Amino acid sequence: MSLNTTTRSGNEHVITTKTSQEMYERACRSLATGVSTGFRRRVTPVPMYFVRGDGPYYYDVDGQEFLDYGLSFGPLIVGNNHPTLTEAVNRQMKLAYTFGAQHQGEIDLAELMVKVLPGVERVIFANTGSEAVQSALRLARARTGRDMVVKFEGHYHGWHNNMLVSNHPTTEQLGRASPSCGGQPPEEYALTIALPWNDLSAVRRAFEEHPDRIAAIITEPILVNGGSCMPVDGYLKGLIDLCAEHGAVSIFDEVITGFRVALGGAREMFGLEPDLSTYAKAMAGGFSMAAVAGRGEMFDVLEDGRTGHFGTYNGNPISVAAAIATIKILSEPGTFKRMNAHGDAIRRRIEQAASECGQTLVTTGTGTAFTVHFGLTEAPRAWTDVMKTDEQAYDRFRAALLQRKIYLLPDGRWYLGATHTDRELEKVFPAIDQSMKDLA
Ligand SMILES: Cc1ncc(COP(=O)(O)O)c(C=O)c1O
């Protein structure tokens, strides 16, 4: 594949991706696909190579500085090279990498989570969001003795075969559980029901059609992976209530929203307490760490041996030290207020710039994680609305911003962190204005 290595927008803004292009071509010869996770292949004009990160800035192999609003797909909520986080990890590195045995940090982190997450009485640790989701589903199945699980169209709960269904379904794939890639035998997602989101009647029907079969309902409380759609009033509570009524376990997948939309995540933001929640990403500020948390009795099936939970690296001291440090940094008064104000200011600026340039768009989500939708006049409520966005217009907008050294994720999503300050607003505002003009 041949790609332009130098891209232009006006005369004064030119970035080069020459070295990234060369490295990508070299990588493709030994590293299958050239990248380490499928999502990174979508980055245009070429998957970029970086050498260093500092606060909200990335430094690439061509010596350029980029202001980052992608935050490594979410984890970098306190930026790179945060002194407190780095110090905590370094301190732990000198003590031990890992034990495969118990240590004080596990207790400290579990107690901290119980303290800051509303309704959480007990936790277990894992390494990635995908693993945490699988563990939560296993707990639910062991507890209920049932086999089926409900997920929703447009939601992403990791890459395992039972959950990588109807992630971003095409029109033909709507209305049934559809695999997202090859190598997914139907038997492995036959117990997964995929429903439209923000529609309680669909959930009621599923409970009627499958009496005593549904072990759990899993939902992103804010549909960040499918256009940052917000739940309509009463929807999330309705899900929790329907689960309680039908003896199923309610699960919020807070891998993105946890420690991001508030210190207590969506539980705090919406004042709701599902049976279980899953956490990863922002929880440990860039280190591989995940957890399942919830009401104490949800974990009885582990305590009494009805099921098990495993993992060589679970609760490893380095990731645990990173999580404790990250949560403590985020606990500093005013942090979420500042992050939300920063994100809201960017959203307003994008909307204003669009209106001045005659572009139709809406933004959806929260201050710390939001999505820009070109071509829509109303906030999308579910994946079927998000499907109508003008992706090409966003791609052009993102490319224009990249010219101005603003680094974004490929799907319209922006992530904000604690190291984005007014200084960064001064950089991003004119870049937004100019990039919107470029679209004309
Ligand atoms: C909501 C949600 N759940 C689960 C996952 C899977 O997490 P991981 O990539 O750490 O396995 C993701 C990843 O993006 C996610 O956004």
Low-confidence spans: 1-5, 7-11
Beta strand count: 16
What class, by secondary structure content?
alpha/beta
Strand order of the largest sheet: 6-12-11-10-9-7-8
From the 3D coordinates, which CATH architecture of the largest domain would you assign?
Answer: 3-Layer(aba) Sandwich
How large a portion of the residues is in β-strands, by DSSP E?
A: 15-25%
CATH class of the largest domain: Alpha Beta
CATH superfamily assignment of the largest domain? Type I PLP-dependent aspartate aminotransferase-like (Major domain)
Largest sheet: 7 strands, mixed
How many structural domains does the protein architecture include? 2
Approximate helicity band: 25-40%
Q: Do you know the CATH topology of the largest domain?
A: Aspartate Aminotransferase, domain 2
Hetero groups in this structure are:
pyridoxal-5'-phosphate
Kindly summarize this structure in a few lines:
The chain is α/β, with parallel strands linked by helices. It contains 13 helices and 16 strands.
Give a verbal description of the structure.
The protein folds into two domains: 6-81 and 334-438, Aspartate Aminotransferase, domain 1, CATH 3.90.1150; 83-330, Type I PLP-dependent aspartate aminotransferase-like (Major domain) (Aspartate Aminotransferase, domain 2), CATH 3.40.640. The strands form four sheets. A seven-stranded mixed beta sheet has the order 6-12-11-10-9-7-8, with helices on both faces. Strands 3-4-5-15 form a four-stranded mixed beta sheet. It has a three-stranded antiparallel beta sheet with strand order 13-14-16. 36% of the residues lie in helices and 16% in strands. 48% of the residues are buried. The protein has 440 residues and is α/β, with parallel strands linked by helices. The radius of gyration is 22 Å and the shape is globular. Residues 73, 128-130, 133, 156-158, 220, 225, 253, 255-256, 280 line the site of pyridoxal-5'-phosphate (PLP).
